[in-house]
Amino acid sequence: MKKSFYPTLLLAFFLSSCVGTKKYNKKVAELQSMDSSYQKIHRELDICLSEKEQKSEKVKSLENDLVYLKSISTNLLQQLNDLSIITNSQAESIKKSLENINSKDVYIKGLQKEMSRKDSLNMALVLNLKGALKDVNDEDIQINVEGSAVFISISDKMLFKSGSYEISDEAKTLLSKVADVLRAQPKIQFMVEGHTDNQPIYKSKIKDNWDLSVLRATSVVRTLQKDFGIEPNRMIAAGRGEYLSIASNDTEEGRSINRRTRIVILPELDQFFKLLEKK
After folding, report:
1. Tens of pLDDT along 160-209?
2. β-sheet bridge partners, residue 109
3. In what order do the strands lie in the sheet with 141-146?
4. Packing angle between helix 21-50 and helix 88-132, nearest 10 degrees?
5. What are the angstrom distances between the C-alpha of 185 and each of 125, 189, 217, 220?
6. Angle 241-149-211 (CA atoms, 0-180°, nearest 5)?
7. Which of 80-89, 104-113, 124-133, 227-236 has the lowest mean pLDDT?
8. Which of 16, 68, 120, 165 sits in a 20 to 30 Å window from 3, CA-based?
9. Domain 133-274 fold
10. What is the number of other CB atoms lying within 10 angstroms of the CB of residue 59?
11. pLDDT tier at 2, thresholds 50, 70, 90
12. What is the distance of C-alpha 146 from the center of its chain?
């Protein structure tokens, strides 16, 4: 963000305190320009907070601007008070603007602290999961962070037989390891997503791929609850059918990749959203 108007303000307010009407009007205009700059920074901050991916870089830039504004604010206020033409109400208005800058500074620091805390929790969770699943083939289970959530993607062959939604005994061993990590984080909520390829279903008890994906998700959720003691109020079961594919369904290899179950560990957003409330 450019700051070329700040040196102009400083130069203007170092002028003599005995000024005429013309100079007074000029200083009022400059003060209004500074207030407009404050408002612009606040609007940009709101836009920044609405876009999570770009927030860190934008907040840092805004913080630098606020630091710069604070560095000149004390001298600016003193110069204004030294002018014989400035009124008490004008001085009070400027003081309130400076107080607002300070409150925004505290707000940004709190936001950055919460972002850093969440990133640290996600990293610790990923390391714990990878440690617990170190003996599982990387092609069959993948763990990564996207945005503010942790994703565990498990291939279809690790959990179910073809066209089935019944959990295999081998799959329970895998789910028990995931459950051990999730139980250690009792405040974390997560969603289990079922995904399929685009091949038609010919079993009478399963209507279509929507049905199969939901049944698989509920099977995993039910197993985590009944066999491994995960509280049901922490879990969401969801079916995505064939409509969120990550590979082409034109080949057997691609269809195999698309048949998967994904556990999405949701971020703790309550405290974060409190920081985003309108100030």
Report:
1. 877 789 998 888 989 999 999 888 888 889 999 999 999 998 887 899 99
2. none
3. 141-146, 149-155, 260-265, 190-195, 235-241
4. 20
5. 9, 9, 21, 19
6. 15
7. 80-89
8. 16
9. 60s Ribosomal Protein L30; Chain: A; (3.30.1330)
10. 19
11. very low
12. 10
> At residue 208, what is the residue type?
D
Name the token pair of 85. 């033409």
Domain boundaries, the chain: 5-114, 133-274
Tokens of 147: 């945005």
Between CA 85 and CA 269 the distance in angstroms is 50
